[in-house]
Specification:
By secondary structure, the chain is of the alpha+beta class.
Length: 102
């Protein structure tokens, strides 16, 4: 919900890349400076491997003041929200069917 709230109500800010983290199997992280405060941003594996974010580059981010958190504007949080709901309700449904059959 935090990411969805930031995507819909967040302010667009400018951040500067401070450092690149290591690339893992599902992506990596970069450290950015936004309004004199350092934040860690998750990036995708393709962006990490290609070196899309270079130290000193200026990037646009969305800032959620109520969470003191930033996101990249192109992140797809709706898919994650739906998947979270599915992984919550699917086991409940299976449990209901299991109890109903006994």
């Amino acid at each position: 919900m935090r990411d969805y709230t930031i995507m819909t109500n967040g302010e667009e800010k400018v951040a500067y890349v401070l450092s690149n983290g290591n690339c893992g199997r599902s992506g990596g992280t970069i450290q950015v400076l936004c309004e004199d405060k350092a934040y860690s941003l998750n990036i995708g594996i393709n962006e990490c491997i290609s070196g899309k974010y270079k130290i000193g580059n200026e990037i646009r981010v969305l800032y959620g003041i109520q969470y003191d958190y930033i996101l990249l504007p192109q992140e797809n949080v709706i898919v994650g929200l739906y998947m979270s709901l599915a992984f919550f309700f699917l086991p409940l449904y299976c449990l209901y069917k299991l109890i109903k059959n006994n």
